[in-house]
């Protein structure tokens, strides 16, 4: 019987690659979040004025969800 556990090849480039993609994702996420924040604030304010009450989701939550939707689209293209 052979021991298959002793012949494991670990690719040292894989952890760096994942870390690089993760940091690149976070940079894009931050840029998109900051770009979406003014528009999300404006739409939140208009919705609050129309309904005459504060909505359950604030401008930061709206911008965060938009960035969570848009950023993966960039990386999947």
Please outline what is shown here.
The chain has helices at 13-51, 59-76.
Strand percent estimate: under 5%
Helix content: over 70%
Extended strand count: 0
Averaged pLDDT, please? 83
Our count of helices gives 2
- For the record, give the distance between the C-alpha atoms at the N and C termini, rounded to a whole number: 46 Å
Structural class: mainly alpha
Order of helices and strands: HH
Q: Segments where pLDDT lies below 50 for 5+ residues? A: none
What Rg do the Cα atoms give? 21 Å
Largest sheet: none
Task: Note down, in words, how this protein is organized.
The protein is mainly alpha-helical. The protein has a domain at 32-77. α1 crosses α2 (59-76). The N and C termini lie far apart (46 Å). It is built from two helices and no strands.
Write the layout of secondary structure elements.
Blueprint lengths: L12 H39 L7 H18 L1
Helix pairs in contact: 1-2
Q: Which descriptors apply to this entry?
A:
mainly alpha
